């Protein structure tokens, strides 16, 4: 007879094989991600370099040739062939005359960090071109900073003249409401994209406050043979 007072204990399935399988899948996925990243990284870097080169020609109209300059720890600008470090890019016309310097800048926009490139003419002390390198601003609104013609007109001859001792700019680059621009150092905003357009003015102001004096004080470095 079967003793019904005894309960039959069912053996639970062991979890070790399942854990091993999960770990194995995780390792395989991790290796696949790393291999994909390593495989595509050279192409990504090449495309970024090509995009930057094209942007330099856009923000420095008339440029035929370019040179790269590195800012050393001693705050000296020196020509370089490297693509690493704190760099600016000089543009020259067909006769070898300096047209301007292309400078990168970045700062917080509405959605994320905005990266820009702008052209600076140290002879006239004006910003002469502007291009958005990277932006995640709202499509149809914030992305107008890249294509709104009235906004882009701000950067054809934006005044960033230095003071007498070349230590800083005379007037800060300031954003104003759309249609309210009265002075050549003001940036006319974009209706519906106020935060994004203000961000560009602020990024440019902070950047040129730093770079303007450095470039003008060492202007001969860009024309040295």
Outline the structure in words.
It is a single chain. This protein is of the alpha+beta class. The protein has one domain (52-223). 34% of the residues lie in helices and 24% in strands. It has helices spanning 16-59, 149-152, 194-217, 220-223, and strands spanning 65-71, 77-80, 87-92, 98-108, 113-121, 126-134, 158-159, 174-176, 186-188. A seven-stranded antiparallel beta sheet has the order 2-1-3-4-5-6-7. Strands 8-9 form a two-stranded parallel sheet. A hairpin with a 5-residue loop joins strand 3 (87-92) and strand 4 (98-108). The chain is globular, with a radius of gyration of 27 Å. The N and C termini lie far apart (108 Å).
List the SSEs and their pairings.
Elements: H1 16-59, E1 65-71, E2 77-80, E3 87-92, E4 98-108, E5 113-121, E6 126-134, H2 149-152, E7 158-159, E8 174-176, E9 186-188, H3 194-217, H4 220-223
Parallel strand pairs: 8-9
Antiparallel strand pairs: 1-2, 1-3, 3-4, 4-5, 5-6, 6-7
Structural class: alpha+beta
H-E order: HEEEEEEHEEEHH
Strand content: 15-25%
Count of spatially separate domains: 1
Distance between the termini: 108 Å
Please outline the major beta sheet: 7 strands, antiparallel
Shape: globular
Q: How many extended strands?
A: 9
Radius of gyration: 27 Å
Order of neighbouring strands in the sheet with most strands = 2-1-3-4-5-6-7
How many DSSP helices? 4
Average residue pLDDT: 90
Determine the fraction of residues in helical runs and give it as a percent range. 25-40%
Stretches with pLDDT under 50, minimum 5 residues: none
